[in-house]
Structure formats: C-alpha cells, structure tokens
C-alpha cells in the first residue's frame, strides 16, 4: 500500500493491482461488490487501531446497496465509494441514514479512480448533517453538497479523541419489520432477476426488514443469483441435519405424532424430520421420512400437517412433488377441516434432485432436496 500526497489535507491511497485481481476474480463480476471490497480493504490498513467490520459488509448487501461500514473508537463509520470525478456532492443510500440498525456516526466520501488504481477520501460528514442538510432523491438516496464535508481527516482523528461525545446523529424512527409470511411473499417476488432494483420495488419499511435480516438477505441474494439451497438427504443417513430440520419430539406436541402414525416403532428404521413453515394462516409443519430400500434406492414419505389436532390447514392448501426440471410429479390438496395432507410414498435413486412446493392461494414456499 502506498499513500499519495497530492493533497496534504486528504488521504489518497494506491490500490494494489494484486488486490484488484483477487477481488475481481471473487466478486462474481458484480461491480458494486468489487467497488466496496476494494474500498474497505484498501482503507482499513491505514488505521492503526482494531476495527470491527459490520455484518452487512458482505456481497448479499452490496448487491443492492452501496457503502461499507465498520466500528472504530466506538464510532460507526460508513464508507461511500464512488467512481465519479465530480466531488461537488456525495450520494448516500437511504439505508445508511434511515434504518436505525445501519445508521452511522461519520460518513466518509471516497473517490475511486479505477484507471489510476487510486482511492481518495475527500471528506467526512455526520449523520446529523445528512438529515438536516441533504436533499432526498426519488431513488431513495440523499445528496449532500461538498460544503458540508470536512476535507481534512486529521480533524476526525482529533475529534474522536478529544470530543468523543460530540453529537453526530439525529434520532430516526424505528421501522417495523414485516411478518415471516410477508417476507416469504416478498422474497418470491423480488427474487426475480428481471427486477433491476428490488430496493425500489416495495415500501422502504418492508425493504429495511428484508435487508437487515441476515437470513432473508442471504436468501434474496441466492434467489437472484439463481442459487438454490438444497437439503442433502444423504447427510441425514449420517445423523447430520440442518438446524431448520428438527426431530418430531422437538416441534410436534407429544400426542400429535402418535395420532398421525409418525412415531418411530421398534422395527421402524426410517429417519423422520420436521420443518416449521410460516404460511398465511399460521404455522404448518413439513414432515419428511426417509429410509433405505433393499435395492439401494431411497424410500420417501412427505406430509404437511397442522400444529395440533384442533387446528386445520387452510382449505385448498396444495402440496406438490416437483422434479428438477420443474414438472409436477404428484400433488394433493387439502379440504375443509384437514389436519394433514400427504403425498404418495415414492422411491428414488441416490443423486436425484427434487423439490416440495406448498401453495396457499398465491403464496408459495419451495424446499429443494438432493438424495
């Protein structure tokens, strides 16, 4: 790393060509991911103290929102990298300003020159200045004029030591996160890669709930990348299970499994696990039983059930077995007062992929499996 001194009041750094090559190779050709990784990994070594990189400084966040965050001297710092040669203003995504969990104390405007492999921090400002003086734009960003940025970062270093209690933030109202059912519907909608900017497709409060939840954010990233998360049933034979797939006794009431014939008997060698699904009318439970057949194939039994004998699946709830090519192999639909619906038991060779789809009206949940 080389520090350049064209402007004595500003930090200007040389970007390592090796770092550029490495990050571009692993960024999935996403320019925004690449830009933020270069910014973060080039700037942080200039700090002589330990920093804590924020949990949202990851590709699943950078795919949608520009900016990287870390904590330094108990202050939250937001880096906003841009490649524009215009430094008359800085554009800050709304996520970094109006989501309490993400809002920072100080915001550093960073100009990156990809041709000269250089990075320049041309000024810093505070959350307070952004809220009081910035212009809010239709694309959910704030634009703050350069006059509100202090170009000399030495001022920031001094203030952080001598005036650590300097007021830097304006209180922003808490945002209510949506329900799990609502999140599933939003993921299904926004997972369509034809939607160019999913952050602008839904109300900001709903988007804030998705983007700040690690699980939902990662699922959205995978959906838009065409990455399907598959449950490897072969691992079940080795007593290895994902956290979402629990034993029957953990989730179902003591009498429920027995009443539906699910409890393991002395001669029963099948493996049974259950996963809780959040459906529009409440929770339901997907149960999958697995056992090895004499011919080496796997026998599979799939059920969808309510949480208790006094609860019922919504009428018209559909349970489908779907092939890897998207064909519906079999399906079953609930009637009024059904506690349980079940697919016909089937056998399949090891290595085969399939999906189980649950539909309630327009709401769809899909679980992917590989044997």
UniProtKB/TrEMBL annotation:
InterPro entries: DUF1822 (IPR014951)
Protein name (Swiss-Prot/TrEMBL): DUF1822 domain-containing protein
Species assigned in the record: Dulcicalothrix desertica PCC 7102
């Amino acid at each position: 790393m080389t520090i350049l001194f064209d402007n004595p009041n500003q930090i200007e750094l040389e970007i390592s060509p090796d770092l550029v090559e490495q990050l571009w190779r692993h960024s999935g050709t996403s320019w925004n991911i690449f830009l933020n990784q270069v910014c973060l990994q080039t700037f942080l070594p200039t700090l002589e103290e330990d920093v804590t990189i924020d949990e949202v400084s990851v590709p699943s966040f950078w795919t949608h929102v520009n900016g990287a965050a870390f904590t330094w001297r108990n202050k939250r710092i937001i880096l906003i990298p841009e490649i524009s040669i215009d430094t008359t203003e800085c554009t800050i995504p709304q996520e970094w300003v109006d989501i309490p969990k993400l809002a920072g104390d100080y915001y550093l405007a960073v100009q990156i020159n990809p041709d000269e492999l250089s990075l320049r921090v041309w000024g810093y400002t505070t959350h307070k200045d952004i809220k009081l003086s910035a212009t809010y734009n239709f694309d959910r960003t704030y634009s703050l004029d350069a006059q509100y940025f202090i170009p000399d970062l030495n001022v920031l270093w001094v203030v952080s030591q001598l005036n650590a209690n300097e007021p830097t933030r304006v209180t922003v109202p808490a945002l209510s996160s949506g329900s799990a059912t609502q999140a599933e519907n939003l993921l299904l909608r926004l997972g369509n890669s034809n939607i160019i900017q999913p952050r602008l497709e839904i109300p900001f409060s709903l988007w804030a709930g998705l983007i700040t939840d690690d699980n939902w954010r990662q699922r959205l990233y995978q959906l838009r990348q065409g990455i399907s998360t598959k449950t490897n049933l072969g691992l079940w034979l080795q007593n290895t299970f994902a956290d979402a797939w629990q034993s029957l006794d953990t989730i179902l009431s003591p009498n429920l499994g027995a009443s539906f014939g699910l409890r393991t008997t002395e001669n029963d060698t099948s493996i049974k696990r259950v996963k809780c699904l959040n459906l529009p009318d409440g929770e339901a439970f997907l149960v999958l039983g697995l056992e090895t057949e004499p011919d080496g194939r796997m026998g599979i039994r799939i059920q969808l059930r309510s949480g208790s004998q006094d609860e019922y699946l919504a009428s018209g709830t559909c349970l489908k077995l779907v092939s890897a090519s998207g064909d519906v192999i079999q399906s079953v639909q609930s009637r009024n007062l059904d506690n349980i619906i079940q697919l016909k038991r089937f056998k399949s060779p090891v290595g085969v992929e399939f999906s189980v789809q649950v539909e309630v009206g327009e709401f769809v949940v899909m679980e992917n499996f590989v044997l």
